[in-house]
Amino acid sequence: xxxxxxxxxxxxxxxxYGPGQxxxxxxxxxxxxxxxxxxxxxxxxxxxxxxxxLILGWLSPARGRVEVAGKPLDAHTRRELxxxxxxxxxxxxxxxxxxxxxYVLLGRAPYLDFLETPGDEDRRKAALALEAVGLxxxxxxxxxxxxxxxxQLVILARALAQEPAILLLDEPMSxxxxxxxxRILEVLxxxxxxxxxxxxxxHDPNLAAAADIAVLLKGGRVLADGPSASxxxxxxxxxxxxxxxxxxxLDGHPVILTRA
Amino acid sequence: MRRAALGSTLIVVLAVAVxxxxxxxxxxxxxxxxxxxRITDAAGHAITLETLPKRLVxxxxxxxxxxxxxxxxxxxRERLVGMxxxxxxxxxxxxxxxxxxxxxxxxxxxxxPEEIAALRPDLVLMKGSADERMSETLAKVGxxxxxxSLETPEEFFRDLANVGAVLGNEARAVxxxxxxxxxxxRIQKTLAAAAGEKRPRVLxxxxxxxxxxxxxxxxxxxxxxxFQVRTAGAAPVWxxxxxxxxxxxxxxxxxxxxxxxxxVFVVVWHSIDPQSMIDSFKADPQWSALKAVRAGxxxxxxxxxxxxxxxxxxxxxxxxxxxARIHPSLFKETDMTREVYEFYQKLYxxxxxxxxxxxxxxxxxxxx
Amino acid sequence: MRSSRGRSRRLWLIGGLVLLCLAGSVMLGRYPKxxxxxxxxxxxxxxxxxxxxxLRLPRIAAAFLIGMVLSAAGAVFQMIFRNPLVDSGFLxxxxxxxxxxxxxxxxxxxxxxxxxxxxxxxxMAGLAASYFLARRIRxxxxxxxxxxxxxxxxALYSAATGSIKYMAxxxxxxxxxxxxxxxxxxxxxxxxxxxxxxxxxxxxxVLFLLRWRLNLLSLRDExxxxxxxxxxRERLVLLxxxxIATAAAVSKAGQIAWVGLIxxxxxxxVVGSDAQRALPASILLGGVFVLVxxxxxxxxxxxxxxxxxxxxxxxxxxxxxxLLRRKLGVRT
Lengths: 260, 368, 332
Description:
heterotrimer; A: alpha/beta; Rossmann fold; six-stranded mixed β-sheet; four-stranded antiparallel β-sheet; C: mainly alpha; ABC transporter involved in vitamin B12 uptake, BtuC; about 75% helix
């Protein structure tokens, strides 16, 4: 951990997908403190997923760098990084019918050598991760037979089995109903209590309101960033989305309403 | 003529004697040749047989070609124990001349090594030198395989000599070879004497008629059919211009019209009626425009039970007939009926009555 | 029985089935009589012993090995390409291997290493061509595109093999075209087995050791990456091993179709989709499948039936059964 508890740091990051393409991200800089929940908010195409992939190290920036625990990404080994950063993608390929527990077990890969197969300890941790999302009962079910909400939770469980310090979630709640959304948020709150650092993307301002920090992105640039209660105000949101919204404070948290 | 009669009588007597003795148990002590038998087969393998093989099995493509060769030797008839039944296994012919033929074992197409081993052969004879790995496979269980090719005259004489060697009857092989060579030389002498005679341009094709559509194919340059045409004093047109691979090659009518041959001979597969094939050719507007067809020089290749063109030993009859058709003025005395009698007598020991009964009814000579 | 223990038990049962089939196959043949060879026939008969040791056993070994390879390769292709409808016959791999082998026989001297090497090179090229072609097609979803591209590449290779056959001296250089198209093991000796063993065994070992990684590789690339996997590299290792082993098998046996397609599906139904069990199950069941087909090929009739005909027949029947009962175990 570096000074002032900053675990993840993005410095002046720029990226574009191809030589003739407009930049997906321009000069984005962020500092994310350990143990916080940060929401990346912005309309579609604002560069949220790109930013997540850059933080993950899956994409390489054209300019700038990503630092984890004070060191740039390429100063870490792949193994270190895979034990530090976990990804919950928006959805997952599921061509063949793995069992839920077998799928969650995949999250133990960073702790296994190339030719190693999971052992009892790994199975135990996978079961714990499944319990953490409240789906232990589904351990032997086929992953293809799950509902959308259950599947999202299972994907989260897989990431938890990785025991990462940082959890990246890409639109984790976009296909979920209210009950499942609530569940995910509860899990995330638990994770925060356990000291994990969480970063999720969303296009729904109300979900961003559930986070500690909100970062507003538009057109590949950071428009505003700071504590969600203050950053999610009407002016910022209007700049981000181009439409007027009404913000109401409820128990100290902003509630964003769109006007008809 | 007397020598031929004496010779054939001797063969018949010998054959009968051998058959009678062969009906009893096989001789217990091996009838070994003085030296081990050594041959080089059509695939170039050097084969050494310590004792005379007593049980012969024939497999591979066109088994009738090898069987017809074997049956020229009394030992061949006796020692053949089994064969692969593929295509025409010569049953129509061999059953007629050998009552014991139907007792020989037959195997289905492409028998495996175990199936062949079950016949306990001392030697397996097989046509073709392709990557048929039978020789390697059977060698592992101690069964030798000799390949025969029979596609060209040189191969025919070499394979004939090999058959004589493995049967322990080289004298007979020499006799048979002399018969063939004698006929060839006779034709060549007649042609040489008439040096000024023009060599007609001749096309020989195999015609197939599938569902009313003709396909015609020309034989390979080195094959027996090409040899027959050339030796009969004609120029094979299909050697001009197109590349013939080592097999039958399809040619289209444009190419044939381009060659514009003087005479056309069509080999018709035995299952098709040659007269109807010839008639369909003549009725076809494009074929009938050819010079040869207009002049009436379109012939079906002759045959009896088997065709006289293929590498079957009957090719010598085909050659004799061809010479007479191509140079009728030079070969006026050729009497094909007499040739047929002599062929079957000398080579298969059939007397006149047998030839008349078995062969002559099937002879088709002048279809055009 | 979906429990983990139940599935492991089934895997052991499959192992037992393997031993049974191997033992049974030794007793089947056509010498001295068709079908079953009684022990009494073997006892005092050196020819019978010879036949069994030098012809039957290597053939059984070859059939089993080839079944293992084709099935393993099929399972690997299906998981890596996330496509339940592929095997080496649908991706240009088998046809490429046949083309490479024919090319080596006609133009490169035909030594065992030239043939296998050439087969491997063209098999890899076929796979690459199918994959990159599929990425550029704009028709249908990924499953369809890969199958279409694979069929096109396979057809091209088949035509090319036919041309070589046409140009080569048919009496000397190449086995019958039917051998390449329909496959067959009738000439197999220990020499042949020993030529492909040093290629096939290491490749199978590699695939076996990486069986759990195969699960990881069926995830999204980003997810796999986040788990410390290098997806491109690990996929390449698996694919290369699968293709090289397949090429060795094809160079000896011709093209044997449908094994790699159908056996992994059956294996998955029996032991679940986790590659930790599904891959070994595919391997063993594939061996059994081809072994049983080859037994039929060599004993059913007096003449040999080309092996590819039997595997295609049984393979397609099983495929149709699974398809019609919607039990192909796949979600798209």
